[in-house]
TrEMBL record:
It comes from the Bacteria. The lineage of its organism: Bacteria, Pseudomonadati, Bacteroidota, Chitinophagia, Chitinophagales. It comes from Niabella yanshanensis. This is Uncharacterized protein.
């Protein structure tokens, strides 16, 4: 009698982000820490500041093919300037740092969305931003937004890569799976 051998294929979580320059991340971490001290939002004090582009779950067996397709987008993309400017709010539950010119990010997001269309339940961020605090209660939002809608913030950096992060099934921490440099190459499919 022949025995059937099956292999385990874990379902991992992935995030595609743009990581600002270290000096800008430090400024944002200070803002997040101060916000948490003043308004006790549901944020991690000094937590990571990044621009989230997409999030998805996929089986590990598909990881290399998916990574290669996303990397092709980066290879064909040109580095671009991102200007973070002032604060915005989303659904009276989140306060964030806005991005002044969204066109380069929207073009990138559209390509990522097309690439991830085969991945069930892939989530593409339609409003790229850097979150300061989210999941705020009504009283937290009202009190903090009175201050932050008048505050100013400005920082500029060159986005020259995307990071693909991975969280393995059963783990809580994220690791960098791949740095995908924008190289402005002609890519043929």
């Amino acid at each position: 009698m022949q025995e059937l051998i099956t292999t385990y294929n874990p379902l991992n979580d992935y995030r595609l982000i743009i990581d600002p320059a270290q000096a800008i991340k430090k400024k944002i971490a200070e803002i997040k820490t101060l916000f948490d001290e003043q308004y006790k939002g549901l944020v991690i004090a000094g937590g990571q500041a990044f621009i989230y582009l997409a999030e998805f779950s996929d089986y590990e067996v598909n990881e290399q093919a998916t990574t290669d397709r996303i990397d092709r987008i980066a290879l064909g993309s040109m580095p671009f300037k991102l200007h973070l400017k002032n604060f915005g709010e989303l659904e009276q539950r989140e306060i964030y740092i806005g991005i002044e010119n969204l066109i380069p990010l929207q073009l990138l997001s559209d390509q990522v969305a097309a690439t991830l269309s085969r991945v069930p339940e892939a989530r593409i961020n339609k409003i790229p931003r850097v979150t300061v605090a989210k999941g705020l209660q009504v009283f937290q939002f009202k009190k903090s937004w009175e201050e932050y809608e008048k505050k100013s913030f400005s920082a500029t950096f060159i986005a020259n890569e995307m990071l693909l992060l991975k969280r393995m099934e059963g783990f809580s921490s994220w690791q960098i799976l791949k740095r995908m440099r924008f190289q402005n190459l002609v890519i043929t499919y």
